[in-house]
Amino acid sequence: MTDWLDKAVQRTKKKYQVQRAREEQLAHEEALKRRLGSQFCRELFAWFENIEAQFNNSFGSHVLAVSLVGGNGSRRLKILARPTRAQESMAELNYQERTSSLGLNMDSGAPAAAQAIRLILTADGDVLAAMGEDYYTAEQLGQKIIDEMLA
């Protein structure tokens, strides 16, 4: 019985060794992506909170309003841009740590269009936001969103 068991275990190890190693590598990459994705979103959301005060002080009035809701696992950031009394636009970023997903909803008077932002783990171990064929750091993504809101 022991001889058969030893042989069966060895055959199974040999047969599935590469697949199991790949699965472990993928699980490690996903955990790293979740951790770095969460860090990316914390940096992005903190950037928006900092830029709100800086922009309003430089502009001379209250044009941007930023509010953050949620904890580490699920966060939502709302941005209101009001450059004139008659012009207003809103954007909402939603981050779900469980799925490492970031969603963007922008509304500038037209029906809101939801857009999924992919978080990409680079070979250097950094996370970038991918929108279409373009890739952004947290600050670059924030700048793009603000630029579109004030356009």
Give me the Rg, rounded: 22 Å
Q: Please write the string of helix (H) and strand (E) elements.
A: HEEEEEEEH
Distance between the first and last residues' Cα: 76 Å
- Average pLDDT, all residues: 88
Largest sheet: number of strands, sense, barrel closure: 7 strands, antiparallel
Strand content: 25-35%
Q: Tally the helices.
A: 2
The tally of strands reads 7
Which residue ranges are poorly predicted, with pLDDT under 50 across at least 5 consecutive positions? none
General form: rod-shaped
The overall number of domains is 1
Roughly what percent helix?
40-55%
Helix-strand category? alpha+beta
Adjacency order of strands in the biggest sheet: 1-2-3-4-5-6-7
Overview of the molecule:
- By secondary structure, the protein is α+β, with helices and mostly antiparallel strands.
- It has one domain (about 35-150).
- Helices cover about 45% and strands about 35% of the residues.
- The chain is built from two helices and seven strands, in the order αβββββββα.
- It has helices at about 1-60, 140-150, and strands at about 65-70, 75-85, 85-95, 100-105, 115-120, 125-130, 135.
- Strands 1-2-3-4-5-6-7 form a seven-stranded antiparallel β-sheet, covered by helices on one side.
- Helix 1 crosses helix 2.
- The longest helix has about 60 residues, at about 1-60.
- The protein is rod-shaped, with a radius of gyration of 22 Å.
